[in-house]
Amino acid sequence: MSPNDPHAAPPADPVPGPGRGAPRPPGRRARWLGTGVALLAVALLCGGAWWLVQRSKAPEGGAGFPAAGGPGGPARPAGPGAGAGGGRAMVTVGDATVRTLRLPVAIEALGTVTPVTTVTLRPQVSGMLTQVLFTEGQMVRKGQVLAQIDPRPFEQALMQAEGTRRRDEAQLENARITLERYRTLLSQDSIARQDVDTQAALVKQLEGTVMTDRAQERTARLNLGYTQVTAPAAGRIGLRAVDAGNYVTTGDTAGIATITQTAPIDVEFTVTQDRVADVQTAAAEAGAAGLAVVAKDRTRAQELGRGRFSTLDNLVDTATGTVKAKARFSNADGRMFPNQFVNVRLELRELESLVVPVTAVRTGANGDFVYVINQDRTVTLRKVRRGQSTVEWAAIAEGLQAGERVVTEGGDRLRDGARVQLQGDGAPGAQQGASGRRARASGASGPTGGAGARGVEGGGHRPHGPRASAEGASAPAAPASAASSARP
Questions:
Q1: Is residue 78 a contact partner of residue 86, using CB atoms and an 8 Å limit?
Q2: Residue 82 per-residue DSSP state
Q3: pLDDT digits (tens, 9 = 90+) for 424-467
Q4: Which of 300, 324, 370, 381 is the most buried (most CB within 10 A)?
């Protein structure tokens, strides 16, 4: 067979020699091709991730529908339900109108209820306590007998003092009679003047002795009266510190009990030194009527009473920079208790101010601000300067005008320029979206296909893009279904 014969078999591979059996390394073209494929895969992954993110941001419009103005579909105008940014839902917020009110200018402080009178019931003589004539917590009147000390030792002392007085009075009477005799004899020149002068001195000495005896008798009578322990003031008596049968002395620090006057009652609180001048001016303007003071409980939920401002202390506490103040309350119902902590509100005057609810004012890095609602339902962040505030209202000294509307609830989710929906408004955009979803759901599950029916009724117009392909998939089936339903 000729070596040039075209039908000749190819020559056998030469016997691999040293170095010929090893595979060849890939060429440069193969390396560039692999790199390109890897870059293309990464790009596809990034594009898919971006598409998923954009789809998650799109409003509800059915599965597979792009957001308004997104790639692959016509741009849809933002309806009433569209929020700021075109694709985000509107935030529903509460609103209030800026108005003018007479807002009270007041000072709020923490006060302590103090009784007008606090008396510790102590015995004024020492002796055995035989009776306790009060009940713990009882309301007592001034002069009421509350305890009894054994009076017998004091009765004996009184009798002894009375006997001494009577003896000395008899001696004095005898000395006076003798003096009169001596003076008669002196006038007859029958006695020396020295005897008369001596008798006159004795009379004066006995007069002094009788005066001392009378004082001792009164002291004994007074001590006998002290055996009945009476209330020195009217008020509520506290817990009993000693029982009957114990020996009590005048040096007992705890005494028998404590009496506190609770009607009327005082409340002590502090005023900062910067407000002292305001308080003095307001008190002078109020005159005899006095400034109104309101006391509330610890949680500010319940009003305990209304009273009148009494006075300020005469010095400033250098440690706290405050001045003590006192107000008096009638406390006829007994709702205020001694040493109770209360919240005090001292009303100085009333000022006409622009006010908004306290919840409308927010605090940021640049100070206080509010969200103002515009006519087109967008909000504008506006800085304000606060004035006097109450529990419900905040006075705005600068930044707002009467009649403007501000956001009171839902402001945490807003930004400057965002579109909002008020709580009293309807939700037309949401209703349209819900009706569209129901229509598409019925078209997808119906026998004729909702999308194809809409295309025929609308004059054959069909949308383009992915939505057109999704809706037009069932269009060819519509005539067939209609023809089949027309046959008898």
A1: yes
A2: B
A3: 765 444 444 444 444 444 443 343 333 333 333 333 333 333 33
A4: 370
